[in-house]
Amino acid sequence: MASRIAASAICAGAVGLLAGCSSPFDQPHDITRSLNKTLPQGIERIPPSVYRDHQSGVGTAALTLMAEASPDEYVRYALYHSPEVEAAYQRWRAAAERLPQVSALPDPRANLRYSFMDDEAILGLMQSFPWPGTLTSREASAAHAAMAAWRDLEAVRLAVAERVLISLHELAFVDAAIRITDENLELIRSFEGVVRSRYRVGAGSHSELIRVQVELGQMEDRFAELRALRPVYVAELNAVLNRAPLVEIRPVSQLPGLRVVGDVSSVIALAQRTNPTLLALDQRREEQRMLAEAARKDGLPEFSVGIDYMFYEGHVVNRTGAGYPVMVTMGMSIPLWREKYDAGVREALARRLAVSSERSSETNLLSASIHRAWFEHTDAHRRVHLYEHTLIPKAEESLHASLAGFRAGETSFLDLLDTERTLLELAIAAERARADRGKALARLNTLVGEPVPTEPANQPSQYQNQDEVQP
Would the pTM count as exceeding 0.85? Predict the structure, then answer.
């Protein structure tokens, strides 16, 4: 008889417990359910270049990269295939999964008591309830942590895009330098043929022949160095594209020249509103504020409500007159050890102050970095303008004059060689300045957190027009 009562109670408890159990793999997880709480305001959906349904294994079709791809297509390809972006995305997903964990009530506790003396069994179920608002504060802190993780993801995406653009500008510079050097190499070879012919007929000196041969050797060395350097930049670009180092990349044509519109103060003001690192620190500061609220509420009583169901035989006296009596249990925790709760509040406050100080330091570093990137961008643009509109045209004019004088016997070959070398150095310096201008612009976009306002670099600015009309 006793075993039958105990078995009934155990079966009733087991059925109740198993009814609520299921495998986490039964249904695919829809991450969009957490978007409203884990994405910052103003972001309505996950960018397609980042989102992939990892639970079902079905994702967006892999992006391909055409031979004549634009810089934006290179960036889009890198963002989709980058393991760094994927890692940051998974960290955000992990942070988002904290919300249902911290906002749920504690698991109910089931217990079974059996009395051999009275031949009765009691099946009980107890549920605890934290102080009102505790779970809400913990969920809010987890939501802010997930928002900070999303801002970190944005920072990683910007860093990957910057690396792509820097590699492209470096590769474009090397390709341009190879092209310019090759053209000048052919010119020096033609000079060497002319000098050799003049030397054979006694019209030229041996020193001129030696000088042009030395110049030809130096030019060939520079050309070989540039060709050997190109695979290095190709490997760096393939690395950020998550491809094998030896994947071929066709010569990069001259990239669009852009310059920033406005002044450095407006760029800094924009960065303070949009820089993802600063925004992530803001979210972490709010996270610690909500954790402090939760720590305060942890020091308040926790309530418990339970229900007991009694199984017994008829020969036991039933004081209630019911066949199967039900009893209700209520309880309350006593937060007696105050030091641990006070320490939790102090910990959250200290962490919040640390985050605030970190944000102040990051703001100062951001301002200094923008000033440096701004100088590099504007100085490179100044050099490009100087080379394109002043130095290179004058060097070309000087070369034409030297060629005419050399044919007429009025200019020495060494003067002609010096003029040609000057033009070569200026042409390569102009390409270097173009690459530096584009790299600095990519850096500014990363620091600001979004593309800064720009205009075509070949369009004269109001400042240039003012300089031109001044005496």
Answer: no
